[in-house]
Amino acid sequence: MSVGDTADTAAFAVESIRRWWTTMVQARFPNAARLMITADAGGSNGYRVRLWKRELGRPATETGLAITVCHFPPGTSKWNRIEHRLWSAVSMNWRGRPLVSHEVVVELIGATTTRTGLTVHAERDTSTYPKGVTVTDEELAAVPIKPHAFHGEWNYTIGGRRPSAPRSTGS
Question: In a 3-state reduction of DSSP, which class is residue 137?
Answer without folding.
Answer: helix
